[in-house]
Amino acid sequence: MDRIDFAILSELQNNARLSNKELAARVHLAPSSCLERFRRLVTDGVLLGFHAEVQPETLGVGLQAMIHVRLARHSRDHVEDLQEHLTAVPEVIGYYHLTGEFDFLVHVAVRDSDHLRNLALDAFTTRKEIAQIQTSLIFSKMRKSIWPCLKLAEHDVHR
Length: 159
Hints:
The chain is an alpha+beta fold. It folds into 2 domains: 49 residues, Winged helix-like DNA-binding domain superfamily/Winged helix DNA-binding domain (Arc Repressor Mutant, subunit A, Orthogonal Bundle); 82 residues, Lrp/AsnC effector binding domain/regulation of amino acid metabolism (RAM) domain (Alpha-Beta Plaits). It is built from 6 helices and 4 strands, in the order αααβαββαβα. It has a 4-stranded antiparallel β-sheet. α2 packs across α3. The longest helix has 13 residues.
């Protein structure tokens, strides 16, 4: 990948709805060359997909929380079983497998506090892999849609 590929990634992270013509103009390429590079980035697995940002409340989400999970045992089976379970729970937005005091940090979206309590009791405390959970409510959040480019020198990225 070169600086033009990184420029394409940067532009698409800012606005994935750019037409090929607009994208080509922004990265100073002919549209055909830009399309070829874009297709290569998809084929090579650099661009993984395109997503719509949705307002959670429009889907009935009134509360979000992070559930910190401590495993009962640090074994591959426990980790894999829990990951499979978390992936299947509709309220789980994402999770991180961590080092430190807790082994997983799980982002959940629920209707309200009753829904959160029932989710914690039914989907977490009943699992043999889980020794302890701790729940933190999310008051506000910010998620950048742009990943930092750490492969090129700082001066090359901002040109």
